[in-house]
Structures are given as C-alpha cells and as structure tokens.
DNA sequence: TGAGTAAGACTCAATCTGAGAATAACGAGA
DNA sequence: TCTCGTTATTCTCAGATTGAGTCTTACTCA
C-alpha cells in the first residue's frame, strides 16, 4: 500500500534519506546590447572558485518567495526596492538527479528571471563576488548549472515569441527600437526594423503608446522615437516568431 | 556568508526542517474521444477517500525515473512493457508551498504524461483504486492537485501546438483522422478536417506515410484512410495553432 | 553644413489560413 | 442490391500575414 507508506514516511522523515531543497536563479538582463546572466563565485567546496548561479536553501516560505529573496540578496537590492519588484520571475524546472551535488541529495528548483538594467551587485554582504557575465562567456559553471543556464536561455528565447515579457528587460517606458534590441540580444540575430515595428504595433495588447517621445534622437543620429509602455496582454497573438530555425527542428 | 551556511547545512540536514520530495503525475489519455486523466483514491488521511493524482516518494533515482516507476506501479503495467515505454513523460513543474501537505513540508515535482490507450489499471497491487476519469469530471482533488491538473492540461494544449506529441496518444500507426480526434479532444473543439489534413502533411517531419491503409472504413462509413507513423521532427514548424483564443489572451 | 543613422510609413510578391465545396470510397440498413 | 449517410482527400479562393526592400524625414556628430 503506497498510501500507507506515504503516511508513515511523512511522520518519520528519517525513514528516507535526507533531501535538501534549494532555489537557483537564472537572472538575465541586457547590458551593452548583449544578454548577461548573474553569477556568483563559490567560496567553498565543492566547486570552490567556480562560477555558479545564485541560489540558496528554501526556508519557511514559498518557492517563489525564496527565489525573490535570493535574488534580492545576491543583487544587493533591498527587498522593497522598485527595481526588484519589476523583475519577472517564473519557475524554470527542477533538477534533482542523485549525485548532482556530491555532498547529499539536493533538489534544486530553478527560477528564470528577466531584469531591467540593474546596478552592479554591491560589494559586501552575501553577494561579495556576484556579477553580470555575458551568457556567451558563462561556461563550466558549478554543479549542473551549465544545463540549467542552457535550459533557461532556451525558455527565454521561446518566451519572447509568445509573451510580451521582452518588455521586462526595459524600463517603464521604451521605444520600439529598444524593444527590438532586446529581441536581437536574446535571439542572437538582427531583426528587420520595419517588419518588427509593424508586428509589435499590430499585436493587440503588446505595447501601448504613452503619447510622448524621446527627448533627443539616438546616439548616432536619427529622429526622436515614440515612447510606449507594456500593454495588458499576457500572450502575444499572433506570436512573434523567430526567424527560420528549420535546422533546429529535428 | 551564504556559501558557508550552505556548506554546513548540507552536512547537517537537521539544521533545516525536514523536507520530503514526491513526484505526482498527470497522465493523460484519450478514451471514447474524450481526454481522461489517471486518478487514484486516497486510502489514508489526509484527504482520505478523495481522488488524487498518482505519485509517491522519490527514492535513490532520478526524478524522471521516479515518475516512470510510479506510472508503472499505478497503471499496473510491467516496467518493461512496450505500452509503458511509449508513454511520453516530461517534467511539468514543482509545487512546494508550505502547508500544501498538512503533515510536513512536501515538495512535489509534477510530471506530465501522454499515453496511448492503456488497459484499465489492474485490480490489486498499488493501484487498487486507480482509474481513468474524464478531465471534465476531475475536480476537488486532494492537496493542490486541482491546480496541478489545470497546469498540466494547459501545458498539454500548448504542446500540441508546437510539438508532434499528439502522436503519443496514438498507436504506432494512425490515420490523420485519428490524429485530428486527438487534437479535438485535447483542445475541446472541432477542427476543419480539410485544413487539418493539409496542415499536418505540410509540416516537415510531423508524420510519414507507412504506405498502407486501414483494412476497412470508419465505423459509420467512409473510405479507408491512409496510415502514418510519427515523423522525426521534435518541433512543428510552422506550428499548428489553436483556433482563435483572443479572449483568453489578456 | 554635410554625412550618416534611425524611425516610421509604404509597397509588393510569396505564403499561409479559414471556409467551403467537390469527389469518391465505404458501411449499414432497406 | 440499392440508397443514404459518413468520412478521407483534394481543390478553390479570398483575405491575412510575412519577408525584403524602398522612401521620407528628423536628428546627431564632426
């Protein structure tokens, strides 16, 4: 009877080997036109000195709360800070293979975050060695974090297709060109400016005009651009599909 | 130093409240043209007598192995059985809010499964009270399983749009009409037969012809249909989108 | 002031989609 | 056996969408 063993085990955790639960966070942001991920340097064994995704043990809180708390600690932002509240966080998946942590069985619930430009993590505190790293240079991470990061990147690329979450990388007001730069950075390819513009404005609820414009043109010239804010759509319909990836389909 | 506390906690699990890890499975199949989910009746408190998703504690195995083992136990199929191997299983998400299980902190890693027609779970053994229930009638489940099921259904509906996993509900060979019936059951709406047929055959790698046909027409008449097997595509490109759901977008 | 850049509006052909209809093969009951 | 209802498969056609360019302007920087 499985149900019975469930009952007993629940009151006798020692009957099963101990398991620890952590959250690890893949927080992405865009800096200088390139996609960056927040990494910390491990101060202790195992993987001492290696880069790793920020994370920590789950306390008496929901998983989402644990993720947001860890994010606040690692970025050095106060929990109440506005910039932190604007970070989009969603659960990515759970990694729990035996042996992924050499010390004991650790289940890691990974979260994926989209952050607008944030300051460098402040020195001191938990995040002494945290920093933003271009995703192309984030390799050979501790534990199975290479896999977690890869899964997070793929999820992020897909999410930009059918949700308006690209706006989460930007401030409250943004131009279509800035939004296009987000897509280009996440997808790693240039997009046709005219078609992107047409598409974004044609999807209901993606963006809405603020009525204003930038106060000056771009750094290298060009006219002032109109400003938009995120619309009320939760899904893009029709979706904004990545350029042909037939090669990757099989 | 978070890294230090991590290190210590890992060697002293008693320093944190105990956590149990389970897998729960949303296995879907199609019977009589309607989408069904496998449920078990709980024999013990809490939620004694209520229906619940099948699941159990994770042992010294990967999460995916735990999910497949539980599936085998609850369906009463031998682990080596061919029908079981053809069930597609993927991780759905993890539910771990404090209080979701009144006994202790339980993290449940939910898996989503697509199964071809399987026999009724055999009586006796673990699955004494397991059975297939139409998803419309699966309500008021134990724990937070209503939410888990709802998340699983939404994931399944989305997966049919951009992956060929609809074929996982069918046998090794199937007709386009049977595949259309899968989509109709999962999406809960009728599809235009001609357009569906055109679309399925035009997406590269979705299905490939076996060269054969059914040995007789449909139960209510009609010509013999050509037989197909699943193709080698991992993603449908372009996707097979659900009929307008603009209402659900916001 | 001139060169270079970028926003935004258009154009156009190719493709895709939804809706409907036509054709033909079958099963079942009269 | 004949007729009718059902279903597989193919076609048609108009409308919407997409990718690739072009054009006009407004601006910045040197």
UniProtKB/TrEMBL annotation, chains A, B:
Pfam families to which the protein is assigned, alphabetical: NUDIX, WHD_NrtR
Domain Nudix hydrolase span(s) in chain numbering: 18-155
Keywords: Hydrolase
One function term, GO molecular function aspect: hydrolase activity
Keyword Isomerase: no
Entry-linked InterPro entries: NUDIX_hydrolase-like_dom_sf, NUDIX_hydrolase_CS, NUDIX_hydrolase_dom, WH-like_DNA-bd_sf, WH_DNA-bd_sf, WHD_NrtR
Coiled-coil residue windows: none
Source domain of life: Bacteria
Xref: PANTHER family: ADP-RIBOSE PYROPHOSPHATASE, SLR1690 PROTEIN
Designated name of the protein: NUDIX hydrolase
